[in-house]
Amino acid sequence: MSENEALRALSGQAVAIREEFPRPGQRVAWITIRGRHGLNIVGSGELRTLAEALQALGQKNMHRALVLRGAGERAFIGGADISEMAALNPVSAREFISLIHACCEAIRNAPMPVIARLTGYTLGAGLEIAAACDLRIAADSAIFGMPEVKIGIPSVVEAALLPSLVGWGRAREILLWGRNFSASEAFAWGFVQRMAPESALDQAVSRAIDELLSAAPAAVRQQKALMRQWEELPLKAAIAAGIDAFAAAYETEEPRAYMHAWQTKPKQS
C-alpha cells in the first residue's frame, strides 16, 4: 500500500486526513474531525476512529507536524454525545471515557508536535483533546468550557492537564463552576498560546508550522519525547534523562549539520 493509499484508508466519515508540503520533502498532516449536529459532537464511533487515525499517523512517523481541526467553523469539538452518555452504566462509562483518553494519549505520544486549530466551541471532551496538543491556536471568537458538572459528571482524563496549563486556581474555577470562557481569557490564562482573528487563523497556523520546520526534525522529536518524561519524573531523574537525550542527539549528523549552517549563515547587521 502506498503512503497516499494509507492516508486515504485512515480517512472516513468521522475524520478526514490530508497532507501538505509547506517545504520540499516536509510533510504536515491535517486531521479534520467530522462530528455531529454541526458542532462536531463526538460519540464512541467518532472517538474510536479519531484515536485509531492518531495512533496510525504517530506510528508512521512521516510528518513534521499534525494539525487537528474541526469540520467547519462552528466548533473544534463541541463535546461528547450527551444522548449516548445518558445511557451509560458503570461498565460502559469506563469504556466510553477510555476512548477520550485514547485520543489524548495518542496526541501526547505522537513523535511529532500536534497543533490544535480552535474555532467556535471547544467544550468538554474537545477541551481535553485540545489540552493534549502541543500548541493551541485559537480564533479570537472561540469559546471554551468544561460543563460536565452541569450534567452530573466530573471532568476527568486529560482535564488533569489543566492545573499545569492554567494553574490550580483557574483549573478549579473551570471545572467546579463549569462556566464557559472566552478566547481572550484562555490566552491570558495560558491555555491558548496564540490567538488570531478567525479570518487570519489559518495564516497563524501556517506561520507556526513554518517556524517549526526551521528547527531540526530529530531534535524536535527528541524534545517532545523528553518533555513527556519530564512530566512524570522527579527533578533529578528528569535532568539525567536530559543528559542521555543530549548525548543521543550526537548519534546522528543532525547537530553538526545544523550547527555548521548556524555558524555560516550571513550575519544580520
Task: Describe, in plain words, how this protein is organized in 3D.
- By secondary structure, the protein is α/β, with parallel strands linked by helices.
- It folds into two domains: 3-213, 2-enoyl-CoA Hydratase, Chain A, domain 1 (Alpha-Beta Complex); 217-264, Lyase 2-enoyl-coa Hydratase, Chain  A, domain 2 (Orthogonal Bundle), CATH 1.10.12.
- It contains twelve helices and ten strands.
- The chain has helices at 3-10, 44-60, 82-86, 90-109, 125-132, 162-166, 168-177, 183-189, 201-213, 217-232, 235-249, 254-264, and strands spanning 15-23, 26-33, 65-70, 75-77, 114-118, 121-123, 135-139, 143-145, 181-182, 194-196.
- The strands form two sheets. The chain has a six-stranded mixed β-sheet with strand order 1-2-3-5-7-10, sandwiched between helices. Strands 4-6-8-9 form a four-stranded mixed β-sheet.
- The protein is globular and about 60 Å long.
Oligomer: single chain
First and last CA, distance: 51 Å
N-to-C series of helices and strands: HEEHEEHHEEHEEHHEHEHHHH
Shape: globular
Q: Specify the CATH class of the largest domain.
A: Alpha Beta
Low-confidence parts, pLDDT < 50 over ≥5 residues? none
Major sheet size, sense and barrel closure: 6 strands, mixed
- Compute the average pLDDT: 95
Give me the secondary-structure category.
Answer: alpha/beta
Give helix % range: 40-55%
Give the neighbour order of strands across the main sheet. 1-2-3-5-7-10
